[in-house]
Amino acid sequence: MSSGLPPISQASIIVGFVSFAVTVFTFLRVFWDSIQTMWSAPKELPRLLDNVRTELYGERAYFKNAIKQARSKSRSSVRELEEMTPLSILNDSIREMMRDFRDMETPFLNDTPDTNHLDIEKSGKVSLRGNYARMDLRRRYIWLQTKPDFVDVANQVTRIQARRIAYETSNTLSSVPLLDQG
């Protein structure tokens, strides 16, 4: 049974159909992932944003305390500079990340302040829970576009935490005298 087409043409047609099918399935997968992200936004957004906020405030508090301790225990300006440089660099990074986080979070916050949130602000305590607005279609679409940015901030905080732990470990090891095993 001969179709009248040369074998190379038949192979080309088959490759074309397979390529088209892969393209259609890829498009459907991306479309389905977008729909799932928009659908899960009301649950996913508060969890992710509250976790990132908690981590940022925790790191900020740590660096404030660590810088105070480094200033109080250092006796010379050279030693203070050596001890303060990594802390101040990481502190500046956290401060910038907090500023960026607040800017990215703004579209998802309630326009009208919550009275509980105001009471917390008057008492001087920081609320780590966001006062998020209802997730309408516009906010879900913004979430679809900005979710990778929030995940990136969470990853950056994790990297800063790893650097902080490495800094603490090296300081601890350098302050503990090595025991001679002889």
Number of DSSP-assigned strands: 0
User: Mean pLDDT, as a whole number?
Assistant: 82
The number of helices is: 5
Structural class: mainly alpha
Strand content: under 5%
Sketch the topology as an H/E string, one letter per element.
HHHHH
Shape: elongated
Span between termini:
89 Å
Rg estimate, integer Å: 27 Å
What summary fits the major beta sheet? none
- Report helical residue fraction: over 70%
Any low-confidence stretches, pLDDT <50, length ≥5? Answer: 116-121
Structure description:
- The protein is mostly helical and 182 residues long.
- It contains 5 helices and no strands.
- The protein has helices at 7-39, 41-73, 77-105, 115-123, 137-175.
- The radius of gyration is 27 Å and the shape is elongated.
- The N and C termini lie far apart (89 Å).
- Residues 116-121 have low confidence and may be disordered.
Topology diagram in text:
Elements: H1 7-39, H2 41-73, H3 77-105, H4 115-123, H5 137-175
Helix pairs in contact: 1-5, 2-3, 2-5, 3-5
What characteristics describe this protein?
182 residues, single chain, mainly alpha, 0% strand
Short description:
The protein has 182 residues and is mainly α. It has five helices and no strands.
